[in-house]
Design goal:
By secondary structure, the protein is mainly alpha-helical. 56% of the residues lie in helices and 6% in strands. Strands 2-1-3 form a 3-stranded antiparallel β-sheet. Strand 1 (24-27) and strand 2 form a beta hairpin. The chain is elongated.
């Protein structure tokens, strides 16, 4: 077994804050602790978490906060939450693409009727930029996230835990 001092800081057992009150619970992105009465409540909180905000959890077996990906029993709940989040991103991206797509096409048509070039006004360029940034990017990101979550087997998720742990540790350094 590796001595804890030989590991990088983010990989140590005490890399995150001590566990919260009670036996079970989770910490959201704002650092609020949400205690749960049982493992089933913790699992349900992760599944129902619309924004996949459960960054860290605690269990009776852990003295400090840990990533949900490090608890094998939570992996199916995590996968379901990530799929729901991806589906929301895809739907929101589609909605935004429709709104800004209509605006862009309308402005293109308006410029064509006035015998102007497509980008003769900055409004047309702005509408196209909003279409890409507010619609296409979220839609594409949601598609990638859903594709990854669907093919994510429990073993792969556990293998990715060290990378997630480093990212979570870095994120919590700024809080």
């Amino acid at each position: 077994m590796t001595d804890s001092n030989d590991l990088p800081v983010w990989a140590r057992e005490d890399a995150f804050a001590p566990a919260g009150p009670g036996d079970w619970g989770w910490v959201d992105r704002k650092g609020r602790r949400n205690p749960c009465g049982s493992f089933q409540e913790l699992e349900e909180a992760i599944v129902k978490d619309a924004g996949a905000r459960a960054d860290l959890v605690w269990t009776p077996a852990s003295g400090h906060l840990v990533l949900p990906e490090e608890i094998p029993e939570l992996l199916p709940a995590l996968r379901e939450a990530k799929l729901r989040w991806a589906d929301w991103e895809i739907a929101e991206g589609k909605r935004q693409m429709i709104v800004f797509g209509i605006a862009t096409v309308g402005l293109f048509a308006f410029n064509a009727l006035r015998d102007q070039t497509l980008f003769s006004t900055t409004t047309t360029g702005l509408a196209l930029l909003l279409f890409v940034v507010m619609g296409f990017f979220p839609w594409y990101q949601g598609r990638k996230r859903a594709q990854n979550a669907r093919r994510w087997a429990a073993g792969e998720m556990a293998e990715d835990a060290p990378v997630f742990r480093f990212e979570a540790w870095m994120d919590h350094q700024s809080k």
